[in-house]
Amino acid sequence: MRRTLTSALPATRPGEQVRLQGWVHRRRELAKVTFLVLRDRTGPAQVVLPAGTDLPPEETPIEVVGTATRNEQAPGGVEVTEATVTALSEPADTPAVELWRPTLDTGLPTLLDHAATTWRHPVQRAKWELAAASLRGFRETLDAQDFTEVHSPKLVEQATESGANVFTVDYFGRPAYLAQSPQFYKQQLVGVFERVYEVGPVFRAEPHDTVRHLAEYVSLDVELGFVEDHHEVMACLRDVIAGMVEGIERYAGPAVERLGLTLPHVPDRIPTIHFRRALEIAAAPVDEPDLNPGHERALGEWARSEHGSDFLLVEGYPTAHRAFYSHPDPDDPHWSRAFDLIFRGIELVSGAQRLHRYDDYVRTLEERGYPYAPYATYVEAFRRGIPPHGGFAIGLERWVGRLVEAPNIREVTLFPRDLHRLAP
Ligand code: AMO
Predict the structure, then answer these.
(1) What is the tens place of the pLDDT at every residue in 314-329?
(2) CA gap 202, 63 in Å, rounded
(3) Distance between CA atoms of 36 and 53, rounded to whole angstroms?
(4) Active-site residue 347, yes or no?
(5) What is the b/e burial string over 369-380, where b = at least 16 CB atoms within 10 angstroms of the residue's CB?
(6) Both 257 and 160 in a single domain?
(7) Number of structural domains the chain divides into
(8) What confidence tier does 208 reach under pLDDT thresholds 50, 70, 90?
(9) Is there a single domain that holds both residue 63 and residue 201?
(10) Whether the Cβ atoms of residue 270 and residue 311 lie closer than 8 Å to each other
(11) Which range marks the domain in which residue 29 is found?
(12) Which residues pair with 390 in a beta bridge?
């Protein structure tokens, strides 16, 4: 007999024999009857058994063979009666949290220490379902625009973003780093495919314990060639974010419902302001080189009240404070063609048009006092014909964190890595 998923129970014929597999979600002993709720990847099903039936404890994997029977009170209107229950593993230990309760009321340390089981809670699981559906939307949007998915090495010779927060590893007796970003590779691959994207882990030795930083996170990187300027890159970003929301609507409807979420609306054109204006709005000093979390919150509130938007693009950050590969504004090189996307008051995306001429790279490295040698293979790629290009990177955990308005990014990370945590 083939396995029936709980979601397929409503479509069975009354009286049909079914075979379910899943976990013991909950056992309830009443005077005349025992209820067993079995949970599989598609949801719960109710199994009715005689009073006093001996059942394995919650979270034990089981198989149930029985009769599909109409009952309006059961989930999906069908339950399983006249059933036999077989354990598929030894009895499970009592989980650290009661997974059958509708909400998971537990502190963050317990949630993280027992991640392999706490993620089983339907509400917790729903958060990763949003992430997975967003990834599908991300890929579908870019595939439809003729991008090629790539994968770049995570063991690298040089730091891409800054020297400070890299992890060093022993690479056959010489030092190497864990990649902070696919930045250098995605730019070089524009020379091959014109348009590329990558979904993968990146590593940041973040020395601070904050609610928005992880030591390892999932970066959604995009890079496209033959652009006029960064506005084309921002338009692509807009489409990608809209595609991620559509992905959630299409593939994670039940998760959205379980979480009681209102998904953001992505306007056709995301409100866009210059960095100078952003400082004014955030009431920051005019010579502030970057936006801090407080500024971002203020800008998020402003975007909501002025434009009714969850999103705000800030362009034209000071060149000297952006990564060396950022393209300066040709009209005033003090400002750059770099941008950030703020989503619900937090930086979600960084991007820019990049330098694409070899001489510009050499000059910029010199001006910044960076040595040439560690960047040689990257910079020399620009002698072999790289077109004007730009791109951006979205932090997956920040995206889901703001979608569900989690106070801490760790709540939406499957197995977070931070200053203190390397397990589970
Ligand atoms: P940046 O360093 O700004 O840019 O990172 C891009 C986005 O990644 C997310 N992010 C993080 N998420 C969790 N934990 C962290 N420690 C962390 N650091 C960053 C944020 C951020 O906006 N190479 C450039 C991108 C580019 O220009 O294409 C880069 O990596 O959401």
Answers:
(1) 999 999 999 999 999 9
(2) 40
(3) 10
(4) yes
(5) eeeeeebeebbe
(6) yes
(7) 2
(8) confident
(9) no
(10) yes
(11) 6-87
(12) 224, 353
pLDDT at residue 159 above 80? no
> How many whole angstroms separate alpha carbon 105 and alpha carbon 192?
50
Structure token digits, residue 45: 């099903």
Rg from Cα positions in the chain: 26
DSSP character string of 356-380: --HHHHHHHHHHHT--SGGGHHHHH
Residue 161 has pLDDT above 80, yes or no: no
Whether residues 228 and 375 share a domain: the answer is: yes
Nearest CA to ligand 1 atom 20: 395
**pLDDT higher than 90, residue 91:** yes
pLDDT tens-digit series, residues 392-411: 999 999 999 999 999 999 99
> Using CA atoms in the order 254, 258, 262, 267, what is the torsion angle rounded to 10 degrees?
-30
| Ramachandran assignment for 30, one of left (phi > 0), alpha (psi -120 to 50 degrees), beta (any other) | beta
In this structure, the answer to whether residues 21 and 138 fall within a common structural domain is no
Q: Is the dihedral of CA 176, 177, 178, 183 positive or negative?
A: negative
Please tell me the pTM assigned to this model: 0.97
Q: Is 220 in the pocket of ligand 1 (CB under 6 A)?
A: no
Q: Which of 165, 317, 350 to mutate to test the pocket of ligand 1 (most atoms within 8 A of CB)?
A: 350
> What is the rounded CA–CA span in Å between residue 131 and residue 252?
9
- Burial class from Cβ neighbours inside 10 Å (0-12, 13-18, 19+) for residue 107 reads exposed
Q: Which two tokens stand for residue 109?
A: 């340390």
